[in-house]
Amino acid sequence: MNLRAIGCNVESAPVELREKLAFDASKLAHALTELPARYGAEAVVLGTCNRVEVYLARPNEQAAVHRALVAEFLAEVHGVPTEAIIGKLYELGDAEAVDHLFRVAAGLDSVVVGESQIAGQVKDAFEAAQKAQATGPLLNALFPAATRVSKRVRTETKIADGHVSVSSAAVDFVREVFDTFTDKTVLVIGAGEMGRLTLNHIRELNPARVLVTNRSPERAAALAAEYGGQVIPWEQLDEALVQADIVLSTTGAPEPIVPRKWFDAKVRPRRGNRLLVVFDMAVPRDFDPRLHDGDRVSVFNVDDLNRVADQAAAARRKHLPAAEAIIATEVQKFVHDWNRRKDGPVIGKLTTELDKLREAMVSPLLGKLKGKLSAAEMEQIEVAFRQFQNKVLHGPIAALNEASRTDHGGTLREALMKLFGLNG
Amino acid sequence: MTAILLKGIYHACFGLSYLVALLLELGRLARPAAAWRAVALAFGVAGLAAHTFYIVAHKPDPATPSGSLLILAWVLALFFLYGTVHHAKQAWAVFVLPVVILLVGMSYALFTSDNPTLDLGVPAWASGERFWGAVHGTLILFAAVGVSVGFVASTMYLVQARRLRNKVNPGRVVPLLSLEKLEGMNRRAVTVAFPLLTVGLLVGTLLLRHDHSLSDNWLSPKVLTTAGLWVVFLVLVYLRYGTSVPPRQLAWLSILAFGFMLVSLGTAHPFAEGGRP
After folding, report:
1. ipTM of the assembly?
2. Hey, is B45 helix, strand or coil?
3. A contact test, residue of B165, B166, B167, B240 with most A CBs within 10 A
4. Quick one: CATH architecture of A166-302?
5. Which of A135, A264, B35, B197 has the fewest CB neighbours in a 10 Å radius?
6. Sequence spans of domains, chain A
7. pTM score of the predicted model
8. Which helix (H) or strand (E) covers residue B68, if one does?
9. Catalytic entry in A22, A49, A365, A384
10. CB–CB of B170 and A272 under 8 A?
11. A297-346 pLDDT, tens per residue?
């Protein structure tokens, strides 16, 4: 195996550099054409918001592509000085590179452990490379294996259980209150980033309507246009709250915009027994926390959602050892299988060569002894030579098998080829 | 005496099956595994099969406390099965099975004070001779099913509302149905049970008035607790549709109604005592 994984991630490089090294469609197409042409290597480029990695595989007899070459290439493609890149790149070889890719695909190397998006990104990166004909036997085996290992880890452990983002934790809470969403109205108050993120998750539930209200009519109109919502004037906040089932509030108001007395007087009597869930993402809070009763009105603030997300993340981390164990087994299996695949032709050649050698020695001998020995005795001589050949072959084949479990199969294979003159 | 012992064995047979199913479901809450659920379901189905066989073979009289409780338990066991299949992820059985087991237990406990001979042969209500008695009994039975469903939904509602009030992480607890679903289930149960109960009681009242031999029974515990149940239901319907009382309070009222119903079903029926109409 002659594999290298070279790149940078959140731990090795700042976001400013990762942004510069990001591959858009045209740069990716260029890289997938240029890398195989320039270095005679199979290539896959994996670019996400948290990492930029290049996977390169070359034939065993050639030198591996090293970090400096990749740094030069990245510098050329992105117009960034090589010196700014090279120190931030990590380089992993062979089994370590396999291990790294499996960990990345399973979400163990992600900022949010067990996140599922990365598995799709790994698959997309491989498909793009395959489409550009940049892959070969090793990467064609490695990337599908990574996808399979990722699925195995997610199925056999609880590494991907629970929602670990604040916005998805909100969806967990809202599902505790409501059963159907197609008849529900979502009200967005303010235009904070957290509100937008949560709205993205809530919209996946297909609510009937999205209402938007903001002190700035322009910002309300912009947000409403973006999400296909309806603008409600700020002065009609009470009316909007009467209509709403789910509220996302993220204003920058210094004091609560929905005090309890005001809600009880202006909103509650008009709502009847309808349930209301409020996600108050604002700091300071927009809603009086005393409105929360867990019955008709449930109010969750950023701390509540953070707590749920943190608990889910902590629960996932408990399953890391089990996930690591699966990865270790799968890496060993992949390396072993790959090396065995490479051993097959060598063992075949070795057997053929020794067959020829045995024939060359046995045939003249049996010719000379013909008529002097019985047919049974002649057969015994032939069997003895065969057994001798098998005993001679047993050592090298066993050693190759053993070496293929580690990653030293290549060296031994080359040694055998030289020792037995198999290169010709 | 033999009939009582025999009935005890039957009751123990399906009662214990339900109990094992409940314990397995509780075990599943502590350590989730598909096998627990499958075995729990198998025990539940076995209990229901034995229960059904008993009802078909012995035709318990719904006019007796023991018979009415047993038939109600059977309907709720069907409800358990339906919910376990349709709400596989939720802790459905944990809320329904205790009610089924309680009713089976009460049925057995009260059997000793019933007239055991009533359980043998074709009961009067099923003979076709007393049509209005059968109508009265059937309406009350269906109303009782509604009350029981309302009780289960209300109990779940209170647990779910308590979790929400304490902002418990939904990912760390056994899933329950949403507040909206539970509230809707309770509302439907009350909406269906109230008219059934009202008409059933009207028929019963007319029967009592019609038969002068039963006229002393107006103040019997059965009549009084059933009237109490109806009043609670009336209040419940008024509060639900006429005011905006918090759903949590309505859930408590539904639980109170279930309590009245248990007392009502557990007391001797004037018709059974008098053997008429």
Report:
1. 0.80
2. helix
3. B167
4. 3-Layer(aba) Sandwich (3.40)
5. B35
6. 3-161, 166-302, 328-419
7. 0.69
8. helix B65-86
9. A49
10. no
11. 999 988 888 888 888 888 888 888 999 999 999 998 898 888 777 777 77
